[in-house]
Design brief:
Blueprint lengths: L2 H42 L4 H19 L5 H10 L4 H13 L15
Helix pairs in contact: 1-2
């Protein structure tokens, strides 16, 4: 393969994948906005804070799998009510816990008597 053909092939594949990613990002953004709008609509029918929480929990149950939020409904509610959440720190802590490997002390091998 000539250098020119190599560069053309590389650029063609990279351009195609970039366009695919751009389309996926646009679809994801539209999906997230739709989910957000559904939450707003669910809140419109609530008349007090308890009903807001119930509406939120229903919305979460319906959409959590699609959104892959990595939070439970109660965690999100509590974080929202507490304000000032550092999501980057939360995700870093979660990653640390997931990556933690319990180092076991080497076990002594038992030697059988012959």
């Amino acid at each position: 393969m000539s250098e020119e053909q190599y560069e053309k092939t590389k650029d063609t594949v990279l351009s195609h994948i970039q366009a695919l990613f751009d389309e996926l990002e646009q679809d994801m953004a539209m999906s997230h906005q739709e989910k957000y709008t559904l939450l707003e609509d669910a809140f419109e029918s609530a008349s007090d804070e308890d009903e807001l929480k119930v509406a939120f929990e229903r919305w979460y149950a319906d959409h959590a799998d699609d959104l892959r939020l990595d939070y439970e409904a109660n965690e999100l509610w509590d974080q929202a009510m507490g304000g000032g959440i550092d999501y980057d720190e939360y995700n870093a802590e979660k990653d640390d816990l997931e990556n933690f490997v319990d180092e076991e002390e080497p076990k002594e091998e038992s030697v059988g008597l012959a």
